[in-house]
Design a protein that fits this description.
Elements: H1 2-8, H2 42-55, H3 63-70, E1 77-78, H4 84-90, H5 106-128, H6 133-154, H7 181-199, H8 212-231, H9 252-268, H10 279-283, E2 293-297, H11 304-307, H12 328-331, E3 341-342, E4 350-351, E5 371-372, H13 376-379, E6 395-396, E7 398-400, E8 413-414, E9 420-421, E10 426-431, E11 460-463, E12 474-475, E13 498-502, H14 505-515, H15 524-535, E14 537-541, E15 546-551, H16 553-558, H17 566-577, H18 583-589, H19 593-597, E16 599-602, E17 611-614, H20 628-632, H21 638-644
Parallel strand pairs: 10-11
Antiparallel strand pairs: 1-5, 2-13, 3-4, 6-12, 7-10, 8-9, 14-15, 16-17
Helix pairs in contact: 1-5, 2-5, 2-6, 5-6, 6-7, 6-8, 7-8, 8-9, 8-14, 9-14, 14-15
């Protein structure tokens, strides 16, 4: 598998240093070449682990992988500027279906195998040299973590990279055999995670490092996912073809119970983790790396080297390698700066009320408009918008004027109805309901984007029921922001960490397992209500941009159905994790992708009646294609390569 090994030769492996900013965050010196013997020293093991944490930045926050995990689900469709990468992923344009060349799951394939080989080298050599087991346990976590991502996306994948099963390889090979799904789980994922849980510390050795509970979260989710795979309720094909029997003789019920038990152990023994008081506290940029975030691809605004991306100016990187930049939120940000106000109160003299700057907080990010939420998001998952704080804490639905940040900018501008707006005033608002009297003529108040006008309101308005691929709410929770007093325009990539694992998932995993028959001290409704009660607690309103102390937890709990089913859990997961990159995996695990995402609504133009769009989701698509770049470098004829590829993509 040359495309794997030519990048992971231990003699030529490039491992960049991890980020810093605090003395207790991983702060290793870059090293260009790692010989196998280097991992027989503690310095070498720690250096190799640094490379594993660094690898996360090439997957999480990477825009095309983010697109592949979200577009085509019920959370996102392609936006007005979406190219073939985004239209293909949406599965709604006839003739544009992801194949081995266009599926952007190639991102995880390429990064994962390099990391897996690195982890195996640390385990093999570190164990031989009797390095501390807590350090080799971190490598075991990473190896299992990446194998878990691969098996969910591609089905069975190779455990032997050329040096033997789960052994590091030092020589490139062009021959490979895929293991079955049960083999990957029972030989490659579960043993490493069980060992990691036993050997990792309760508290991280440095900020951001993995712990027992981090390993428990992946172990619980792997048990849950494998239980679903054994059940296969909708007869989804697997590959390589095999019976859906567990090699150890366990059934789906056993695995669902294990998912529940491991989750409950973490819930009852949180260690350094826990739920934040409010949903807002989880995502507000001043609280990044909080106790609820267990694992993240880190970035910072202090150092371009440790950020692996410029922290001021254009969006380049210190090494001209932009693959590690956090650009995900750009994809879901529309071209709000094209909205126009007037500098005159009597005649239209167009000027944008928005100055692109991250100094204004999380509402504004660089505008790419590659992905857009369908209308269904606001009618289903986020139908409740006033009691549940998660709608307010997820989306940017009010865009305040920021022209005060522009040198020489005016002190006042005139917006809809020639009414004045001052810095911080709403220039555009997405309305939860359509009042039915909105004027979209854009005359004489020419917004240049077809936005609506209501009498006596200075802000332009667009109802959430009539958003388009061009105009839609942004994603506040991932928004670009700066802690420092300096500021720069939106051309620089986000310097915020991209969150991968959240402590709250233990409640969702246990609840899902309970729905599937697991039993214990808390039932599914009780577990979900912990999350819903927290969602009812308000601290700050993003839309109003002011403190809002309100406790609606009792109302949220009372509104929870008496009986919880999988569909309800999936909707709760969307409310909690919207736009986090979880959605395709959730729908694929539960085999609900077609049921939840086969159609969606979007307006052809803002303000127009929405149309229903059909998606072409087939069963074979529940497995992603092996990348063409991998197949091209395999040694063998077309039949061999065809046999290596997942069915449906040949």
């Amino acid at each position: 598998m040359k495309s794997i090994y030519t990048k992971i030769l231990l003699g030529t492996m490039v491992i960049s240093s991890f980020l810093t900013g605090c003395s207790d965050i991983l702060d290793e010196q870059p090293r260009n070449i790692y010989e196998p013997g280097f991992f027989e020293t503690e310095q070498g093991v720690v250096g190799g682990l640094t490379g594993l944490y660094t690898s996360l930045r090439r997957v999480y926050g990477q825009p095309y992988y983010y697109n592949a995990c979200e577009t085509g689900t019920d959370e996102y469709t392609f936006g007005s500027q979406g190219d073939a990468n985004f239209q293909n992923a949406d599965l709604s344009v006839q003739g544009k279906i992801p194949d081995a060349e266009t599926s952007r799951f190639d991102v995880i394939w390429n990064v994962a195998y390099s990391a897996i080989n690195n982890a195996s080298a640390i385990i093999d050599n570190g164990t031989k040299a009797e390095m501390p087991v807590a350090l080799t346990a971190e490598a075991r976590f990473f190896r299992a973590f990446y194998y878990f991502q691969l098996v969910q996306a591609f089905g069975g994948v190779p455990l032997d990279l050329g040096g033997g099963e789960l052994a590091a390889n030092t020589s490139p090979t062009r021959v490979s055999t895929r293991n079955t799904v049960p083999e990957v789980y029972t030989r490659g994922i579960f043993p490493d995670l069980i060992t990691a849980v036993a050997d990792l510390p309760e508290t991280p050795r440095v900020t951001g490092a993995v712990t027992k509970n981090t390993a428990r979260l992946i172990l619980a989710k792997a048990y849950l996912t494998y239980g679903w795979w054994l059940e296969n309720p909708n007869d989804i094909p697997t590959y390589p073809t095999c019976d859906r029997n567990d090699p150890d003789g366990k059934d789906k019920a056993w695995y669902f119970q294990q998912a529940y038990d491991v989750s409950m152990t973490a819930i009852n023994n949180p260690g350094v983790y826990g739920l934040q008081p409010t949903f807002y506290d989880v995502h507000e940029f001043l609280q990044d790396r909080n106790k609820e975030i267990m694992f993240y691809a880190d970035h910072n605004e202090e150092s371009a080297a440790y950020n692996e991306s410029n922290v001021t100016g254009w969006d380049g990187a210190p090494t001209n390698d932009t693959s590690a930049q956090n650009q995900a939120v750009w994809m879901v940000t529309w071209y709000f700066q094209q909205v126009m106000s007037s500098t005159s109160s009597s005649s239209w003299s167009a000027k944008s009320p928005f100055f692109r700057t991250v100094k204004a907080g999380q509402t504004f990010s660089r505008m790419w408009s590659r992905m857009a939420p369908p209308i269904d998001v606001f009618e289903k998952a986020f139908a409740e918008k006033t009691v549940d704080s998660r709608f307010d804490g997820t989306f940017s639905v009010v865009y305040p004027a920021t022209f005060q940040f522009e040198n020489g900018g005016p002190s006042v501008m005139y917006n809809a109805n020639y009414l004045p707006i001052y810095p911080g005033d709403p220039a555009l608002t997405f309305l939860p309901e359509d009042p039915g009297s909105i004027n979209y003529s854009n005359s004489p108040y020419n917004s240049a984007m077809g936005l609506g006008v209501l009498p006596s309101r200075a802000d332009y308005v667009v109802p959430l029921t009539k958003i388009s691929r061009t105009v839609f709410p942004g994603l506040w929770k991932l928004g670009v922001a700066r802690k420092g007093t300096d500021y720069n325009d939106d051309k620089v990539a986000s310097t915020r960490p991209f969150n991968i694992l959240k402590y709250s998932e233990f409640y969702f995993i246990a609840a899902e397992a309970a729905v599937k028959g697991a039993t214990g001290s808390m039932d599914a409704r009780s577990l979900i209500n912990v999350i819903r009660a927290r969602a009812g607690k308000w601290k700050f309103s993003v839309a109003e941009n002011k403190e809002k102390i309100q406790d609606n937890s009792a109302a949220m709990v009372a509104a929870t159905p008496a009986t919880i089913d999988i569909n309800y859990i999936l909707m709760e997961r969307s409310r909690e994790y919207y736009g986090d990159g979880f959605r395709w995996f959730d729908l694929a695990r539960t085999q609900k992708w077609e049921e939840f995402a086969s159609t969606y609504k979007v307006s052809p133009n803002v303000g127009e009646a929405p149309t229903v769009v059909q998606r072409y989701i087939e069963k074979y698509m529940y497995l992603r294609p092996i990348p063409t770049s991998q197949l091209d470098k395999l040694e063998g004829d077309d039949a061999y390569k065809k046999n290596f590829q997942n069915p449906g993509y040949n």
